[in-house]
Every structure is written in C-alpha cells, then in structure tokens.
C-alpha cells in the first residue's frame, strides 16, 4: 500500500506516529511543561530526541514554545489548539489499552497531576 497525501489518516499518522510523539502530546495535555519536566516524565528519552520531537511538533503547529526573558532563560511548551484537538485520540488510545490490552496502570506525567478527562462528542441522532 502506498502513502496517499490526500488521505487524512495517512497525514495524521505521519505527524503522530514518530516514537515518543504521542507521549509528549499526552504530557502536554496536562498543561505547560518545561523541557526538564518532559524529560523526567518520559523515562528513557534522550535530550536530543526530545528536542527533535518538540521542534517537529512546533513546525507542525501542534506545540508552541514560549521563552521568558529571565536569567537563566525559562522555556515552556504547551499544546496549541491544533495540538489539543489530538487529545481525544490519546484518550481513545487510553480506553482501548484498558479494555483490550489489560493495561490498567496510570499513564499520567511524573508531576502526578490527575488524568485529563475529555468530554465525549454528542451521540449522532438516530434517523
């Protein structure tokens, strides 16, 4: 099967299927984070990989980077509106993992914040 530039699934997979990408989005769904906080919550990610993934997500308009003029400089990352639109996908993956894969653990960031709850879309009206 070939890649189809006009296929919405192909285009979305191209963005979110990189290793660590969905986990970065999951963690940023909890709110703004600094690089070191993301690095701590994503055990096993190298600083270089985290930097590359954040930069790629920035280029896609999914993550925004804010630099504060302090000494030492402080940088925070947050999801944009486009990034927040991916959160239901992550919540669906969490539900799937619990129901079908027996993954009952918590997958919240290291900060210990509560799990993000995203309201389900309204059910389609019966015809």
TrEMBL record:
PROSITE patterns: HTH_HXLR. InterPro entries: ArsR-like_HTH, HTH_HxlR, WH-like_DNA-bd_sf, WH_DNA-bd_sf. Residues 7-105 form the HTH hxlR-type domain. Transmembrane segments: none annotated. It comes from the Bacteria. Gene3D superfamilies: Winged helix-like DNA-binding domain superfamily/Winged helix DNA-binding domain. Signal peptide: none annotated. It holds the Pfam family HxlR. One of its GO terms (molecular function) is DNA binding. Keywords: DNA-binding, Transcription, Transcription regulation. This is DNA-binding HxlR family transcriptional regulator. It comes from Conexibacter arvalis.
């Amino acid at each position: 099967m070939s890649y189809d530039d006009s296929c919405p699934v192909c285009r979305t997979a191209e963005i979110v299927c990189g290793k660590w990408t969905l986990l970065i989005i999951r963690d940023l769904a909890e709110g703004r984070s600094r690089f070191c906080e993301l690095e701590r919550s994503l055990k096993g990610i190298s600083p270089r990989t985290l930097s590359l993934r954040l930069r790629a997500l920035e280029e896609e308009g999914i993550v925004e980077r804010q630099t504060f003029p302090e000494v030492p400089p402080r940088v925070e990352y947050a999801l944009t509106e486009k990034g927040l639109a991916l959160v239901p996908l992550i919540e669906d993956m969490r539900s799937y993992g619990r129901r079908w894969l027996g993954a009952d653990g918590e997958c919240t960031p290291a900060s210990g914040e509560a799990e993000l709850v995203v309201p389900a879309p309204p059910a389609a009206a019966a015809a």
